[in-house]
Fold this sequence. Notes:
Elements: H1 14-24, H2 31-44, H3 49-55, H4 62-74
Amino acid sequence: MTRRKKAPLRPLSDEEQAQLEKLSRSQSQSSTSVMRAKAILAVALGSGYTSAAQQVGLRCGDTVSKWVSRFNVEGLASLQQGA
């Protein structure tokens, strides 16, 4: 049985979706920003936090949960900030 998410990802705007997809394929942005974009996209497509974490090379979903919470408040700007 999975836990209920404390802060599920809010719906993405079309612009956010496009920017996340672009950033997730970027080779010129920081690897951390790319990783965060990929994880947020995975959650937006229905993956759980743990699954999204594993898709980007992390072991547990706690970090993705924090990224999602920050994204919900700050939007795309949250991808450029420190963990």
